[in-house]
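Researcher: First entry.
Model:
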Amino acid sequence: MLWIALVDRTGSGLWAAVSVLYFTYVTGLSVAQVGTLAAVSGAIGIAGAPLGGRIADRLPLTRVLISLQILRALASLALLTTDNYALLLAFSAAGSFGDRAANVLTKLYATRVSGPDRVRYQAVTRTVANAGWALGGLTAAAALTIGTTTAYHWLLTGDALSFVAAALLTVRCAEPPSPARTIATSKDPAPAPTTRPANPWRDRGYLAYVATETVLFLDDAVFKVGLPLWIAHSDQAPHGLAPLLMVLNNLMVVALQVPLARFGATTAAARSLLLPLSAAFALGGVAMALSATGGAFTATLFLTTSAVAFTVAEMLHATVSWELSVALAPGTAQGAYLGVHGLAQSAQRSIGPLAVTAAIATGPLGWTAFGATIAVTSVFQHRLVRDQLSRTALSVPPVTVSEH
């Protein structure tokens, strides 16, 4: 599965780096059309998370995952066949649906096979995935120096082939335990299924948790939209700083995600990380605001500080989110619950750009409010999940995750 993550994200890195340019220069879409395509396909992709999770509770997980990888490959290849806007929209939506569903199923697979080491596995997976993103992005950057239509076609073809390779690798993976078997290793007997609703849509506590997760995932929009736009419209910050901060983000995740994961090796420890997570978000927002108070040196210093703070927040939240989303889900309906949790990240893709754009339009005060809002949400989630966790026995045992 780690090889699958590397191959998948390398291919995704190829396409993510050039998708807007492809639709603009190769298919000839206008700015409004590209924005609408991204928004609509992203909105349709939101459905992939809950539907994929629900299906995985009923069918063999590996077969569903293989089917989704093939869907993603076909959707990518189909983009090469037309410049018709309606068809491009349909193919992009199909790819987005497969992408969100595959992400949830990959997480579900890891949850079922990794047992008490699931937090460490998540950290290693994120490290491998970020390395793949970086490799794909660098390859795309090199290809773009050619600047021909053929180069764009090869990048999109490489993206499709990565999904084919991921599907072939998934064929070699054994089917994990069924949804009816809990992944917890606690020696205590599992609670009766009636202690928690089997349907996540009727579980108000879990839905409230997912709502707070949507806010905490906003750090993703900071690096994809917020920092580049803020720097582009700044009179002090060097415009070349934006890609350097993206590289810094990737390097920090690759170097620090696994070491930081040990601080969230149990469910209780993961919940405790919500407090330093709150501080990291607040610091990131304040540093962004302060970047507008001085010259080039001051702007660079505070923007770098903000990038570091938001990257730390990203890594801490990745550990917390992985553990709590599983710990709060009943073992008999993990797929359905993790699918609903996947809505948080999917919804953020639509809400995030709007939130950071509003912060930019408001100025320094907007960034302070942005960081403070996420910080307060972290504290609120810390309190929210306390009672939820006291009613579930899905937590991993309170031991340190093995380093071997």
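Researcher: Second entry.
Model:
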Amino acid sequence: MRTRTLHVVAALVAGLLALSLAGCGEDAADSEGFTVGLLLPNRVTPRWELSDKPLIEKRLKELCDDCTMMYANAENDASRQREQMTSMITNGAEILILDPADSKALRSSIQEARRSGVPVIAYDRLAEGAISGFVSFDGAKVGKLQGEALLKAMADRGEGSTVVMMNGDPSSANAAWFRKGAMSVLQGRADIARSYETIGWSPENAHANMSAAISALGADRISGVLAANDAIAAGVISAFKKAGVEEIPPVTGQDADLEAVRRIVQGEQYMTVYKPFEKEAAAAAAMAVALGRGEDARDVSTTATDSPTHKDIPSILLTPTPVTAGEIESTVVNAGVFTVDQICTPRLRADCAAIGLTG
């Protein structure tokens, strides 16, 4: 990954990306509209439908009020997503924002889009092929935050350093990115007893894998679990509960899903990683509008990324934030993601009070 000089919009990332797309040469209200296709990978991860889709649509409208958006969800099926891409291009999409269901399998479709004159922005997950831009969070940083938090939690608990790695779906470039970041801090400081790939990022698959680890190792020998995201963490925790484990070892997560935040309040999940989706959505919309108006994606990028097939892809990589029980209020509550009332259901009020989360 290579960082280069910021071209035009330092404010793009700095202030909730509330930009007017300097250099585009016209106000959004005066511009000729075009159609942006948004393709998201699944419904297993709550953020895609609940956060990313409405946020991208909202920001797109703010930047280009004559623009329209097509939407499709691949339901974890790369073949379906290829068909969705073809359909969008056939029906007039001029820009595609793609979160690939499979980072490699969509390569030929991206090449076809390029031949049709339709730029593709890889969103959240890097895709192979001739993409025109990439918007995400720094995946290595995400993994490092998870690894550092897990080491601290295990040290505080004082019950060993045996870790089970519950990685993401191998078809996603992010899974390897997160794991590499985590291993950069765990290597030599933790004993990785088992490592699993979680197909589809599915809680059910995570539950099955964690049950296998518990059976093989014994629950009392597992000091912590590096779970790549909150859906996987949910499956891990359910496996411990099914095994009758009362004191669940530290479990990491990612995405700051509402249920994950509640699990942190209860002490079932140790941490998650908060990624301000509004900033990511705003960055993707900004890049799409710039490309739709004939501008270079480098005019709104802040760095460059290399994929397995292409070098120097114009990119915006945002900064993630760790969230443990003591940081819920300063992160997701203060950012307006969730209210205290949403988090602290009647069943959780005593737990919330215990960590000072009272609104």
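Model: Note on the second entry: Residues 248 and 268 are 6 Å apart (CA to CA).
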